[in-house]
Every structure is written in structure tokens, then in C-alpha cells.
């Protein structure tokens, strides 16, 4: 297949591009500022901004499949920059329109767990509305909705460190928000399968890792990997929101009220659709294993082995 990966230079994108090349596909990675040096071998770079239709239409045309991995991180606070609505919703509208006009048949949309047009954060609302755009198209679409994704180049571990300190740290609500993190090395083959196998057309999948873990657990794991203890001091959620609203005016602080709201909701699945890809949730990589905290799983991401 001739595959265009929009957002192919990002965290999940570079891993997916490498997987697709390895499976024998011709791959182009589209983003606003692709860096040849950062792309896996064999991947062609293309410049375009999904929020500007004319900048992507010609590039999209003629591909067999398009993958939409464009992201403004849910942790990103758009003050002054593009909004979640422009990037996630407008970007999806433009990619779907360009795919339709350009004879593309397959479309894989990366959404997010809990995506909901009436959700509580701008990110989740834009993701929910973007899903509707994809479903209403005539393309052979598949939508995947992962929980938080970890791996080399990902934000999850780095963000946990930004939010906390070793030894003693305050966490909103005591860090009881629950996640079900999935390793990028487990997720990406499922994305490639979703493109290749007709059985996945018209399906929406909630994908998560093997364990439900709280933000407090993740904080302890991240510092344990550095040989440090941490005691969690609960900060009442209401107080945390005031604090986070106060830092909202500081452009260098990557955190605002929407991000505080996102910590009020669990990010876990009732049924883990990794089974649709022949995977048993229990066999997926844990965050602890990735951080080197148990010796039972020695799999590594591409960049770790490179
Ligand atoms: N990482 C997670 O934990 C997680 C969890 C659930 C869902 N997701 C979803 O998975 C997808 C990929 O996430 P990721 O973590 O890999 O994101 P990422 O590392 O932030 O990569 C985002 C990519 O999108 C490109 N991009 C951003 N705005 C663009 C625009 N206007 N036009 C064209 N390209 C643009 C970026 O390149 P330039 O900046 O050069 O344009 C980059 O290649 C996203 O849809 C995200 O919402 C991620």
C-alpha cells in the first residue's frame, strides 16, 4: 500500500512509519516541519498543515491509505497557538475531504479514549467531533481510541516528572485518577493491522494496556526507576484547579485548567479491544517493565535497540 501518515514525525507516528516500511508499504510522513533526520529509514517527508486544506490536498491525492496521527497534546495549552478544534477537528475535516477528493480508500483515525463531542475538555470534545466526521465519510475507516501511550519519545513519563517532585509531592486528588497505559510497541502493530485487514473497516476500538494504574502509582514507579522514594500528599481537586488556573497565565507552564479537569476522569476501558487484534491484554507490556522495574519482559522499542 501507498500510505500517507499525517503526524508521521511524532511519537507514535515515527514508530508506525517504521512498522509500515518493515511490512513493505511505501510511506510518506506529513507534518508542518518534518525533520528528515528524525524519520525512520525509507520514509519520505512531506510538508503540510492539516488545518490548511490547500497545503495538503495534492500530497494526500493518490495514496491508498491515510492515517491521521496529527496531535496537539492533551497536555498542551493552546494559548495563542492553534486550538484543539483547528488541529483535531478542522484537521480531520480537511484530511477526510482531501482523501475523498484524491481517491484514497482507507482512513485510520487516531482518536482518544473517552472522546466525546460533549466531553469536559476541549481536547476530548474535538476528538469526539472528529470521530463523527470520519464515520460520516464514504471512506473505509477505522477509529482507534487508546488510553495514554508510553514509550521512548512519549510524554507520559516526562509529564509525570513535570507535575511532581521526588521524595514528597502533592498530587490533585491524591493522584487517584486511573489510567491504563499501553506501550507504543504493542499499539503500533495493531494500527498497521487495522490498515491491512478488511475486518477492521467500520470498527471503533478502545485500546489499553494490561494494568489499571493510578497517577500516584505511576509517580512512584517513575521515581522508583531512579532509585528514589516518593510520598504523595493529596491536594484537594478544587484547590488544584485554582492553582492550575493561576499558572495558566504563564506561557512556559504546560498546564492549565483543562488539564486539571482531565485529571478528574478515569482513562480506562471496560472491554479492552486489543483482543480484536489477536492480543491478550495480559501479554502486553507494563509500564513497570518499560521502566526496568521487573525482569520479566525484555522487549524494547526500536529506538531502544537502535
Ligand atoms: N501519546 C498519547 O499518549 C496518546 C494517547 C491517546 C491518543 N493519542 C493520539 O495519537 C495521535 C498521535 O499522538 P503523538 O503522541 O504521537 O503526538 P505527537 O508526538 O505530538 O506528534 C504530533 C504530530 O502531528 C504533527 N502536527 C501537529 N499539528 C499539525 C498540523 N497542523 N498539520 C500537520 N501536522 C501536524 C506534528 O508535527 P509538526 O509539529 O512538525 O507539524 C507531529 O508529527 C494523536 O492524534 C493523539 O491525540 C496519543
UniProtKB/TrEMBL annotation:
This is NAD-dependent epimerase/dehydratase. It comes from the Archaea. It comes from Natrinema gari JCM 14663. SUPFAM superfamilies: NAD(P)-binding Rossmann-fold domains. InterPro entries: ComplexI_NDUFA9_subunit, NAD(P)-bd_dom, NAD(P)-bd_dom_sf. One of its GO terms (molecular function) is protein-containing complex binding. Residues 7-149 form the NAD(P)-binding domain.
Amino acid at each position: 500500500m501507498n500510505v500517507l501518515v499525517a503526524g508521521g514525525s511524532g511519537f507514535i507516528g515515527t514508530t508506525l512509519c517504521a512498522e509500515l516500511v518493515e511490512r513493505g508499504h511505501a510511506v510518506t510522513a506529513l507534518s508542518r516541519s518534518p525533520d528528515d533526520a528524525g524519520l525512520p529509514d525509507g520514509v519520505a517527508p512531506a510538508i503540510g498543515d492539516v488545518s490548511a486544506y490547500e497545503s495538503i490536498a495534492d500530497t494526500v491525492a493518490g495514496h491508498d491509505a491515510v492515517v491521521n496521527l496529527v496531535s496537539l497534546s492533551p497536555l498542551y495549552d493552546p494559548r495563542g497557538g492553534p486550538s484543539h478544534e483547528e488541529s483535531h477537528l478542522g484537521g480531520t475535516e480537511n484530511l477526510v475531504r482531501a482523501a475523498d477528493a484524491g481517491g484514497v480508500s482507507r482512513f485510520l483515525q487516531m482518536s482518544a479514549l473517552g472522546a466525546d463531542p460533549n466531553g469536559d475538555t476541549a481536547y476530548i470534545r474535538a476528538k469526539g467531533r472528529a470521530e463523527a466526521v470520519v464515520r460520516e465519510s464514504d471512506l473505509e475507516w477505522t477509529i482507534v481510541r487508546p488510553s495514554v501511550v508510553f514509550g521512548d519519545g512519549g510524554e507520559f513519563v516526562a509529564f509525570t516528572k513535570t507535575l511532581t517532585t521526588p521524595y514528597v509531592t502533592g498530587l490533585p486528588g491524591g493522584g487517584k485518577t486511573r489510567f491504563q497505559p499501553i506501550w507504543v510497541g504493542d499499539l503500533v502493530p495493531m494500527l498497521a493491522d487495522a490498515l491491512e485487514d478488511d475486518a477492521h473497516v467500520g470498527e471503533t476500538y478502545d485500546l489499553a494496556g494490561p494494568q489499571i494504574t493510578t497517577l500516584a502509582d505511576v509517580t512512584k514507579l517513575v521515581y522508583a526507576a531512579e532509585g528514589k522514594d516518593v510520598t504523595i500528599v493529596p491536594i484537594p481537586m478544587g484547590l488544584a484547579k485554582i492553582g492550575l488556573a493561576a499558572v495558566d497565565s504563564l506561557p512556559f507552564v504546560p498546564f492549565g485548567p483543562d488539564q486539571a479537569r482531565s485529571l478528574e476522569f478515569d482513562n480506562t476501558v471496560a472491554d479492552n479491544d486489543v483482543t480484536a487484534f489477536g492480543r491478550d491484554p495480559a501479554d502486553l507490556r507494563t509500564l513497570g517493565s518499560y521502566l526496568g522495574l521487573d525482569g520479566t519482559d525484555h522487549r524494547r522499542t526500536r529506538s531502544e535497540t537502535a
